[in-house]
């Protein structure tokens, strides 16, 4: 029971992540916008992904009659949600402490969990309502009035989760660290409830497992791999469209920004121009499995004129030493690891 | 039998000749610029970036052009010494002061020698300095904004030609005079030139943080023509070398009279010594009148200040600071190799390139091996300082650059070629013709300890080219060579704007990453800026009308103005409220006696309109800004001078 209570407390505390990290991110990219525009939705308000993004999104949206993005004072949600989150955190911690002292039973964990799940669902429902309003409640005097083929007015609602195409804009909508911590924390409280109903022995195992699973989930989410949208996105270095599913590459910066490349050589050149933090991830397609992205720092790179790459460096990634050696047999050439490759381009 | 063989041979020769004709007729030759591998070397695919920036002087255009290498694509023309209607530089109220001089507003100059700022003898990509030859000036251009930030006039100078070369840590930008003049200027017979005219060498300090330029001292040299110069580096850091011609001091028909001496001089100036002398109170302040024009990025405005004094040093005042090294035949180029050991003089009427050694020079100075003096300045013996002679086989060497691999490349104007030779052995390794009559050349990283020996740009002096004809007047032409191999390889011809005299280049990443995208509106300190459309207004002050206007896609605030009268001076201060990359707006008013102005995001600029006719006159945005750019327009109502219509303005009414 004590272990379960500790898990309950940890789970509740994770909710506080929503005060530090953005909950959600919506990004808009288009061929005429080589630097995508984006917004991070925090529990207390919306901020631009880059400094002037909000202003520039509003500037674009005024053509199609969308409202400007809400300031914190424009929406009750930005006042109420933080309070609800804080109250739920405190309540969760309180329940955890009282349970630890044996003053409460484990089913209080479940009560908290159900309450939180309902509140979260309501929150997401409300968020989606806002997006519908934002994307469809358009100014009748809009400069551009666009219609679907069937004559109905076009909706500009961003997706709740995932990617859609609006005109020639690509809109991406994904949860960010704040929401992930909230989900993770809420999930832990459910585990805490399960543990409270089991023997100490089993519960200790589950506690360890739950912590490991949650933390690895959180860590992996921190830099989630974004699949490359082949044929749609363009290389952030050379601006050519990424089509080749064997040579594409991706950087996920420590700030969570994703850069796509049509070739590893472009990624290496780009990484040298900018300086990415140590936490950044370098991913590359490889020869064995088209469109799969693997950790470039662990990969091997074959330079062979018999295997041309999109930008002329004849550079192809291979996932491991065995497949690298095999490829060497077929194509000959020169084999480099990540460090040697960077050295080569320096 | 013999006859048959002869006939076969004749047919064979004829066939070969015809085949030769045919391949020429197709305009190609094997291994030439049309072969695919060469084409690939200069082909930078759409969306890809060039690896080097090339800054080519615009000569008599007065501006600086920015090219990408190896593509030879023109990226930008940066206005410096000339009015530039494209952006309104020199026309807008903010930039007019940049072209102020002691001779008043000078809207043009002849821009010659770009040189990029350095730290520890390597290019640092902060600023590029250029000289105006005609009305002596030096300008500093920011490589963050690619805008001219400062122009300083050089007093006591004329034909500001051996300029604007920077020392190893950008301590100084150096400006030398090509035309000796009376100092101070006065009314005197021209024929009394000899001994009376002076050639000022000016040392302009550069403030490391702001880049602000300030004349530290001028050396009043004998009245020779100081043609080109280069700083020492490494061991020779602290010295500066100037080539001279007309040591005959002729004042007429110089093409004959200044070509009499078999040898002219390279003047070696130990500026460290003179700097110390000046620091300890040496030199003499003399009255002067010269302009220092500075552009402040936060106010988006230039201002001009007249300076009234300059510190002058006579060359004989500081012992052991200045020496003359004989150099054959009116030398033009005066180039220092990456190690700082060799000073290469190009006697422009000679066939040889003469190389002097810095070590030998110091040795000769220490042992006082002098061969007389000129106006008290010791002359070193030619043989004592000479390190070697490149027997080039060409004619008319002008300028030498280096690849950092121990090779030098010299242009030959008269024989129209670039010759590659080895430093130390002085042997000629390769030569390639240019099309036509090359003047100067540039290897990125050129004036530094670390040139990048990948490309060489040869800039031709004669405008005839190998393009489609365009009448008697043409642009110049440049040739790009790949110099990474043993032999130079001609890659491409590309046209250049104005007459490029010199160029500077550097690796793209040194500059590209810092290139500014917008100006921040909240940092805009222009006195007439408005930060929100709510502040837009029109005010009358006597016959001056000030319009405080904002622009954002796609309207002006205000766009209807009434109450302006004939004879008013209407100052339209426009602030661009965009904060997104690449959304400039422009404004032009009908009948304005000036150019349009182009306003970058976050910037404020002012255009002056003086209406002369009653009517309702439109203005509009000149830079395509959005799908509704055509709608970005407005009207100003102009009433008779006697009218009593009050000022009013509106938007959307």
Task: Tell me what you see in this structure.
The complex is a heterodimer of chains A (346) and B (653). By secondary structure, chain A is of the alpha+beta class. Chain A has nine helices and twelve strands. In chain A, the strands form three sheets. Chain A has a five-stranded antiparallel beta sheet with strand order 3-2-1-5-4. In chain A, β4 (162-166) and β5 form a beta hairpin. In chain A, α4 runs antiparallel to α5 (177-196). The termini of chain A are far apart. Chain B has 653 residues and is mainly beta. Chain B is 9% helix and 43% strand. Chain B is built from seven helices and 46 strands. In chain B, strands 6, 7, 8, 9, 10, 11, 12, 13, 14, 18 and 19 form an eleven-stranded mixed beta sheet that branches. In chain B, a hairpin with a 3-residue loop joins β2 (64-69) and β3 (73-78). The longest helix of chain B has 24 residues, at 2-25. Chain B is globular, with a radius of gyration of 28 Å. In chain B, 51% of the residues are buried. Chains A and B meet through α2 of A and loops of B.
Order of helices and strands of chain A: HEEEHHHEEHHEEHEEEEHEH
Gross morphology of chain A: flat
Calculate Rg of chain B over CA atoms: 28 Å
Unreliable stretches covering 5 or more consecutive residues of chain B: 14-35
Largest interface: A-B, 18 and 18 residues
Tell me the distance between the termini of chain B. 104 Å
The proportion of residues in beta strands of chain A is: 15-25%
How much of the sequence of chain B is in beta strands?
Answer: 35-45%
Query: What is the typical, i.e. mean, pLDDT of chain A?
Result: 87
Strand count, sense and barrel status of the largest sheet of chain A are: 5 strands, antiparallel
Number of strands of chain A: 12
Tell me the structural class of chain B: mainly beta
Residue ranges of chain A: pLDDT <50 for 5 or more in a row?
Answer: none
Shape of chain B: globular
Please identify the structural class of chain A as seen in this structure: alpha+beta
How widely separated are the two ends of chain A? 57 Å
Alpha carbon gyration radius of chain A:
24 Å
How would you write the strand order of the largest sheet of chain A? Answer: 3-2-1-5-4
């Amino acid at each position: 029971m004590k272990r379960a209570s500790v898990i309950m407390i940890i789970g509740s505390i994770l909710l506080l992540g929503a005060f530090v990290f953005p909950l959600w991110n919506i990004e808009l990219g288009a061929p005429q916008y080589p630097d995508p525009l984006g917004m991070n939705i925090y529990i207390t308000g919306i901020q631009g992904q880059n400094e002037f993004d909000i202003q520039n999104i509003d500037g674009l949206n005024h053509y199609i009659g969308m409202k400007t993005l809400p300031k914190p004072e424009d929406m009750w949600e930005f006042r109420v949600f933080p309070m609800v989150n804080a109250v739920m955190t405190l309540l969760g911690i309180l329940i955890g402490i009282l349970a630890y002292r044996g003053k409460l039973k484990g089913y209080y964990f479940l009560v908290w969990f159900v309450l939180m799940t309902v509140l979260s669902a309501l929150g997401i429902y409300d968020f989606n309502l806002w997006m519908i309003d934002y994307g469809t409640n358009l100014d009748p005097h809009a400069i551009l009035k666009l219609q679907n083929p069937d004559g109905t007015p076009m909706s500009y609602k961003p997706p709740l989760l995932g990617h859609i195409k609006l005109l020639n804009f690509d809109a991406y909508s994904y949860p960010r660290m704040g929401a992930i911590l909230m989900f993770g924390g809420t999930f832990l409280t459910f585990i805490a409830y399960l543990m409270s109903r089991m023997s100490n022995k089993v519960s200790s195992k589950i506690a360890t497992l739950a912590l490991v699973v949650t933390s690895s989930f959180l860590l992996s989410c921190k830099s989630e791999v974004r699949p490359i949208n082949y044929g749609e996105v363009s290389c952030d270095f050379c601006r050519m469209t990424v089509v080749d599913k064997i040579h594409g590459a991706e950087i996920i910066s420590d700030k969570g920004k994703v850069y796509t490349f049509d070739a590893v050589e472009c990624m290496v050149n780009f990484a040298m121009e900018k300086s990415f933090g140590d936490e950044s991830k370098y991913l590359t397609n490889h020869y064995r499995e088209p469109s799969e992205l693997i950790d470039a720092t662990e990969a091997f790179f074959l330079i062979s004129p018999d295997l041309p790459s999109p930008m002329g460096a004849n550079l192809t990634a291979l996932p491991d030493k065995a497949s690298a050696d095999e490829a060497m047999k077929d194509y000959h050439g020169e084999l480099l690891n990540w460090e040697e490759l960077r050295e080569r381009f320096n | 039998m013999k006859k048959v063989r002869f006939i076969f041979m004749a047919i064979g020769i004829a066939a070969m000749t015809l085949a030769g004709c045919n391949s020429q007729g197709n305009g190609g030759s094997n291994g030439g610029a049309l072969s695919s591998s060469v084409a690939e070397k200069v082909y930078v695919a759409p969306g890809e970036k060039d690896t080097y920036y090339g800054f080519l002087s615009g000569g008599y255009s007065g501006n600086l052009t920015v090219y990408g290498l190896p593509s030879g694509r023109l990226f930008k023309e940066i206005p410096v010494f000339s009015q530039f209607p494209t952006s309104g530089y020199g026309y807008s109220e903010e930039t007019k002061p940049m072209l102020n001089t002691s001779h008043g507003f000078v809207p043009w100059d002849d821009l010659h020698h770009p040189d990029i700022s350095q730290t520890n003898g390597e290019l640092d990509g902060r600023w590029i300095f250029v000289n105006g030859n005609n009305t002596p000036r030096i300008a500093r251009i920011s490589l963050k904004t690619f805008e001219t930030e400062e122009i300083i006039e050089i007093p006591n100078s004329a034909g500001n030609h051996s300029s604007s070369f920077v020392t190893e840590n950008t301590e100084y930008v150096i400006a030398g005079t090509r035309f000796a003049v009376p100092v101070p200027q006065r009314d005197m017979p021209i024929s009394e030139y000899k001994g009376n005219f002076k050639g000022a060498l000016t040392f302009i300090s550069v403030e490391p943080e702001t880049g602000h330029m300030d004349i530290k001292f001028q050396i009043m040299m004998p009245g020779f023509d100081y043609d080109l110069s280069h700083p020492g580096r490494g061991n020779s850091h602290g010295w500066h070398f100037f080539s001279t011609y007309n040591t005959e001091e002729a004042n007429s028909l110089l093409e004959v009279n200044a070509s009499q001496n078999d040898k002219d001089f390279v003047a070696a100036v130990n500026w460290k010594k003179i700097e110390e002398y000046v620091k300890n109170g040496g030199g003499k302040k003399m009255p002067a009148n010269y302009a220092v024009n500075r552009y402040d990025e936060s106010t988006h405005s230039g201002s001009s200040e007249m300076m009234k004094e300059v510190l002058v040093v006579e060359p004989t005042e500081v012992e052991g600071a200045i020496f003359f090294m004989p150099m054959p035949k009116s030398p033009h180029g005066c180039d220092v190799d990456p190690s700082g050991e060799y000073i290469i003089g190009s006697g422009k009427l000679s066939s040889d390139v003469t190389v002097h050694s810095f070590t030998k020079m110091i040795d000769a100075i220490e042992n006082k091996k002098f061969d007389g003096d000129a106006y008290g300045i010791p002359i070193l013996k030619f043989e004592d300082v000479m390190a070697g002679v490149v027997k080039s086989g060409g004619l008319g060497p002008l300028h030498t650059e280096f690849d950092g691999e121990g090779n030098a490349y010299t242009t030959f104007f008269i024989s129209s070629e670039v010759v590659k030779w080895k430093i130390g052995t002085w042997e000629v390794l390769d030569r390639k013709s240019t099309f036509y009559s090359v003047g100067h050349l540039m290897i990125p990283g050129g004036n530094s300890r670390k040139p990048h020996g990948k490309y060489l740009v040869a800039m031709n002096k004669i405008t005839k080219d190998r393009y489609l004809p365009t009448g008697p007047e043409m642009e110049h032409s440049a040739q790009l060579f790949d110099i990474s191999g043993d032999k130079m390889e001609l890659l491409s011809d590309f046209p250049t704007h104005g007459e490029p005299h010199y160029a500077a280049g550097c690796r793209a990443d040194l500059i590209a990453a810092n290139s500014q995208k917008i100006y921040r509106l909240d940092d805009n300190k222009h006195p007439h800026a408005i930060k929100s459309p709510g502040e837009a207004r029109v005010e009358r002050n006597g016959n001056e009308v000030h319009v405080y206007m904002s622009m954002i896609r796609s309207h002006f605030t205000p766009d209807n103005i009434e109450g302006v009268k004939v004879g008013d001076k209407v100052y339209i201060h426009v602030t661009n409220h965009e904060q997104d990359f690449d959304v400039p707006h422009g404004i032009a008013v009908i009948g304005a006696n000036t150019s349009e102005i182009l306003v970058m995001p976050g910037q404020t600029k002012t255009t002056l309109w003086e209406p002369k006719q009653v009517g309702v006159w439109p203005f509009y945005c000149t830079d395509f800004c959005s799908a509704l750019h055509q709608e970005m327009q407005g009207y100003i109502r102009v009433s008779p001078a006697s009218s009593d219509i009050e000022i009013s303005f509106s938007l959307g009414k």
